[in-house]
Design a protein that fits this description.
The protein has 438 residues and is an alpha+beta fold. The protein has 17 helices and ten strands. Strand 4 and strand 5 form a beta hairpin.
């Protein structure tokens, strides 16, 4: 250990010890505690030393030439001044690093998983549990879009630019509607983080996010297919099942496309009129194909034992699906437990193959969920008792049925035509009505 005025020449041409290291302390006014350490390998670094009570503190500020002598003097002066005022800069820095490490451990991926785990037990403002369908939608947004893009980042470091980039990616991969839902779920997630005191109460980078314009189908848009339109849709579904469907690739070339699982799932949606989540959650053990029924278990409309009728063609199609050992689901995929999660890509392909949106302006924007409206309307239009329609659709009240039942004048006329007219009683006289004057 030596004491001298530390100069630039001393740093550039240091005296190298044969072993260990040599520390030279600066004797410049006000710089007591600032030093240069030289190792036997000729490595030069700047150090500072001070006392905090009875505890001696050392700090290596940086190595030369990455840190210059001027920079080292300035930093040492700030540290010594803080220590002289009763602070402990080394301890403060260690605490700050620990806090940063703790913040970095609270990444979007880690806390999003925690949020999804508690969602099924969370209650809404009305005091009811969040529906399984909503939980499923949140899981899709988190696992498919948010975590792959933002999962490694600490929740406190997400910016509005990160949210914009996420929205752009989700728009490209899932479409404009899905992208809007994804950033909406992210905003809900940050509201939970604020309640859990993981972020500041006012911190929500997904609040008022950029949104894609969503096409409104309008009050008069059709949610019911004609006989010919449904026939074209069924043909497109079967083409998807047997692999004769075609899709246009990125280079404009048509290629065959096959998705038996997605095709059979769409056929089941069309014929049963049930919700997508209920159909995709169908398990083999709950099927009775001989009786043409499926027990959907717990659904939105029923706590347990919600049984639906399956048409003969749906039963035939399901029998052709592969049954994977260890996978309980009829419609298999990459979702939780090996189940199929989404059908949007299959639906868009089928809709394009059938040319639905080119057949009528009223069918522009026809959604997969509109298949449920269509089937319920067809049942009511065919004269099926509302009680039976409720049983098949999984609704719980007639008020809900009114929203989905789009009965037309032609349905009323057809129903009335099936009623035999009552003839006058015997002995009665039929009076001829006078012709209206023109």
């Amino acid at each position: 250990m030596a004491v001298a005025r530390i100069t630039k020449a001393m740093v550039e041409r240091p005296k190298v010890p044969k072993r260990g290291h040599l520390v030279t302390w600066d004797n410049s006014p006000g710089m007591g505690g600032f030093g240069v350490r030289v190792s036997s390998a000729a490595r030069v670094s700047f150090v500072v030393r001070y006392w905090n009570g009875s505890r001696e503190r050392w700090k290596t500020m940086g190595a030369y030439p990455r840190m210059t002598l001027t920079e080292a003097r300035k930093q040492a002066r700030e540290i010594l001044r803080a220590a002289g005022n009763g602070h402990d800069p080394v301890a403060d820095e260690r605490a700050a690093k620990a806090e940063r490490r703790a913040a970095e451990a609270k990444t979007v991926k880690v806390l999003a998983a925690e949020w999804l785990d508690m969602l099924p037990n969370k209650t809404t403002r009305r005091g009811t549990r969040i529906s399984p369908r909503t939980v499923e939608q949140y899981e899709t947004a988190i696992n498919k879009y948010i975590v792959p893009k933002l999962g490694k980042l600490p929740v406190s470091q997400i910016t509005r630019n990160d949210v914009k980039a996420l929205h752009t990616t989700a728009t490209r991969e899932g479409g404009p509607y899905m992208a809007n839902r994804v950033v909406s779920v992210l905003s809900i997630f940050y509201n939970w983080l604020a309640d859990a005191e993981e972020v500041a109460p006012t911190f929500n980078p997904a609040r008022r996010p950029p949104l894609n314009p969503e096409q409104s189908r309008g009050q008069d848009a059709s949610v019911r297919l004609s006989h010919d339109q449904e026939a074209r849709l069924v043909r497109a579904i079967y083409a998807l099942i047997d692999g004769t469907a075609t899709r246009t690739g990125k280079r404009g070339k048509e290629r065959s496309h096959s998705d038996p699982v997605g095709g059979v799932a769409l056929l089941t949606l069309l014929d049963t009129g049930r919700r997508k989540g209920e159909v995709l959650a169908l398990e083999w053990r709950r099927l009775d194909l001989d009786a043409q029924t499926a027990n959907l278990g717990k659904t939105k409309g029923k706590a347990a034992g919600d049984t639906v009728y399956l048409t003969p063609r749906v039963c035939t199609a399901i029998r052709c699906l592969p049954r994977i050992v260890g996978n309980p689901f009829v419609f298999t995929g990459r979702g939780k437990g090996g189940r199929r999660v989404g059908l949007q890509s299959a639906w868009e392909g089928v809709k394009a193959e059938a040319g639905l949106e080119t057949l009528s302006p009223d069918l522009v924007g026809f959604r997969m969920h509109d298949l449920r409206h269509h089937r319920i309307s067809e049942l009511l239009g065919a004269g099926v008792a509302p009680q039976l329609v409720i049983r098949q659709s999984g609704h719980t009240s007639f008020d809900q049925l009114k929203v989905y039942g789009h009965v037309q004048v032609a349905d009323v006329a057809a129903a009335l035509s099936r009623i035999e007219p009552v003839e006058p009683a015997e002995g009665g006289e039929v009076v001829a009505m006078p012709q209206a004057a023109h």
